[in-house]
Amino acid sequence: MTALRAAPPRVWRPSIPPYVRGPKPRRRVEFWLLLLACGITTALYSLATLGVKGHLPLHLWGFLVAILALSMLAHLANRWLVPTATPVLLPLATMLNGLGYVEIARWNPPLAQAQAVWVTVSAALYVATLLFVRRSRDLDRYRYLLLLLATFLLLAPLIPHFGEKIGGARLWVHIGTTQFQPIEIAKILLVIFFASYFATTKELLAIPSRRIGNRLVIDPRPILPILVTWGFAVLVLGAENDIGFAMLLFTLFLALLWTSTGRVAYLAFGLLLFAVGAVLAAHAFPQVHERVTVWLNPWPYAQTSGNQLVFGWFAIANGGVGGSGLGLGTVGGLVPFITSDMIFAAIGEEMGLLGIAIVVCGFALMVGTGFQIAQRSRTDFARLLAVGLTVILGFQAFFIMAGVLRLLPLTGITLPFMAYGGSSLVANYILIALLMRLSEEAETKPLPSVKPMAVAA
User: Fold this and answer.
1) Mean of the pLDDT values across residues 119-148?
2) Which residues contact 259 (CB under 8 A, 6 or more apart)?
3) Closest CA to 104 of 424, 365, 390
4) Which residues contact 125 (CB under 8 A, 6 or more apart)?
5) How many CA atoms lie within 13 A of 247 on its CB side?
6) What DSSP designation does 10 have?
7) Neighbour tally for 63: CB within 10 Å
8) Mind listing the pLDDT tens digit for each residue in 270-295?
9) Which long-range CB contacts under 8 A does 416-419 form with residues at least 24 apart?
């Protein structure tokens, strides 16, 4: 009788997850998305010029070549330095930047020329950031040096004959004919410091380790240095009369504290502190009191301090659902600072509710991508850094858009990538470069060492 031959055991092998796939598909997707963003920007620029002047722009081909050259420069840097990073962040930033540039060029052509220079500088610094920050742990290593630099940048506007007060806030620093806001770079440095410190002390902040009587409570000592740092930053911003960035830093601090510990008590205590601080700021700072008063009832101040909001709402109402058409808006010319603080109202008038929805969805996709990067990160520092950068970007956009729509008091911060301003544009492109570096590290992490497992026949 012939002996039955035993069947070979089946071997189970782990499936290959998406993050080990080659870099070519991601960069190919990014390439086509960048072409789409450049095409949309060129088409909108043509429509805006046609609406204002009655003919297509004379330098249309030059404009198209310029934005393609800058986009391809950043794209080639991604292929070389972060080949497996997410393919959607750079195209989204390019589209929002292009949309904002179209509105700036439509309402103030001289400012558009300056903005074009800052876009070029931002693209160069985007590449430089990827080139010099090869590993996120290098940032973790120099956290106290970065904190010292952030402190200097926060204090720079208060230096006599160096800082400058514009629009009621002392945020500007001028060197010769160049003006910039150092707080834009300081906020990124503070994100790095907070992420590094919380990554080191998260267990001490989350696990009760100090005994008081018969109960274990959380040791408050690890949080004291971070509270001192945050309090100092908020006090400096209060002295500079910039409550918008103070509110942004408070949100960042609270988000990182909650993310690193997971304790709801910290979140509740932070919200209580925020409410108390808001009441005190409304009484201590005249600018905050004025903004809250205008927010509650702007109509008595429609010709004075409330004219920016009132005319901004008229512009959005004039746009309706589909907008008045690019280059055909009329109310936007009456809105003060239409290319900076109120560029969201300019979008609402000429592109209507559809344009507002495009902008909101663009920022929502960027925030979702940032949190996805944080979720896939393999170290606590990288995870917290991705969360902090995403929170800064998302809440800055939310605060200014909610201020224009009267959901919150209007703050003086800029809409990322869209509003006129070199400091904000440069800082946000650096922020995107850091997220790309974190995405590259998350997507190229090695597979877990799983040995093949024999399964019985």
Assistant:
1) 91
2) 198, 383, 384, 387
3) 424
4) 426, 429, 430, 433
5) 23
6) E
7) 20
8) 777 777 777 777 777 777 777 888 88
9) 416/96, 416/363, 417/93, 417/96, 417/97, 417/100, 418/96, 418/97, 418/99, 418/100, 418/103, 418/343, 418/344, 418/347, 418/359, 419/100, 419/339, 419/340, 419/341, 419/343
| Largest separation between any pair of C-alpha atoms in the chain | 106
Burial of 212 (0-12, 13-18, 19+ CB in 10 A): exposed
Residue that is written with structure tokens 């790095």 in the block: 192
Q: Record the pTM.
A: 0.86
Cα atoms found within 13 Å of the Cα of residue 141, Cβ hemisphere only = 5
Do 293 and 318 meet the contact criterion of CB atoms below 8 Å apart? no
Phi and psi at residue 434, to the nearest 5°? -65, -40
Decide if 426 contacts 71 (C-beta within 8 A): no
Sign of the dihedral defined by the CA atoms of residues 35, 36, 42, 43, in that order? positive
Residue with tokens 């004919």: 177
Query: What pLDDT band is residue 210 in, cutting at 50, 70 and 90?
Result: low
| Whether the Cβ atoms of residue 191 and residue 149 lie closer than 8 Å to each other | no
- Give the highest mean pLDDT range of 33-42, 52-61, 150-159, 221-230: 33-42
In this structure, which long-range contacts are made by residues 449-453, counting pairs with CB atoms below 8 Å and at least 24 apart in sequence?
A: 450/14, 452/11, 452/12, 452/13, 453/11, 453/12
The alpha carbon dihedral of 146, 422, 339, 416 has a sign of negative
User: DSSP characters for 86-152?
Assistant: -SSHHHHHHHHHHHHHHHHHHH-HHHHHHHHHHHHHHHHHHHHHHHH---HHHHHHTHHHHHHHHHH
Angle, vertex CA 290, rays to CA 170 and CA 154, nearest 5: 20
Residues in the chain, how many? 457
Task: Count other Cβ atoms within 10 Å, centred on residue 111.
Answer: 16
- Number of helices followed by number of strands (H, E) in the chain: 15, 7
User: Which amino acid is it at 7?
Assistant: A
pLDDT tens digits for 323-374?
888 888 888 778 888 888 889 999 999 999 999 999 999 999 999 999 999 9
